[in-house]
Amino acid sequence: MEKRTDYITWDEYFMGVAKLSAQRSKDPNTQVGACIVSADNKILSMGYNGLPIGCSDDEFPWAREGAELDTKYLFVTHSELNAILNYRGGSLDGSKLYVTLFPCNECAKAIIQAGIRTVVYEADKYSDSAAVRASKRMFDAAGVRYYQYQKTGRKIQLEL
Which of 38, 102, 105, 136 could anchor a disulfide with 124, C-beta 3.0 to 4.6 Å? Predict the structure, then answer.
């Protein structure tokens, strides 16, 4: 008997983990997940966009519009930063980040400082924003490789 040939690729696997992590987000509009992987394809950390530990999901705002302190933007930690902060194993030098949405400029700074060398992203829906243009400029300057995940069309269903 030969080995099966329909197994998922590393990119499918790790983007799948990032997408599953996104499902933990309480954000009613945007759920983003991230997965950090070592050079030898071991999962090092995961994260999703949400409030910092100790800040109640019920007491802080989730709105996208309104007065600054009545929106989510000053309170939510992005998935990439959560994944970096969740890592407890030492250095992330040379690792790869899978993320469901292209990183903003603030996350790009943390990614570069953490030593992450590759970013694989699913969506780039804010590509025209100053934040994403700044991210790409910093990634290019720092030598961080980034590329868009190529969907395979494979459907993977989990029963939980």
Answer: 102
Whole-model pTM: value is 0.94
Number of continuous H segments (helices) and E segments (strands) in the chain: 4, 5
122 catalytically annotated: no
pLDDT at 160: 81
Write down the residue that tokens 């007065």 correspond to: 67
Beta bridge partners of 50: 77
- Reported as a single tens digit per residue, the pLDDT across 11-30 is 999 999 999 999 999 999 99
Question: For the packed helices 105-114 and 130-142, what is the interaxial angle rounded to 10 degrees?
Answer: 20
Integer Cα distance of 84 and 106 in angstroms: 13
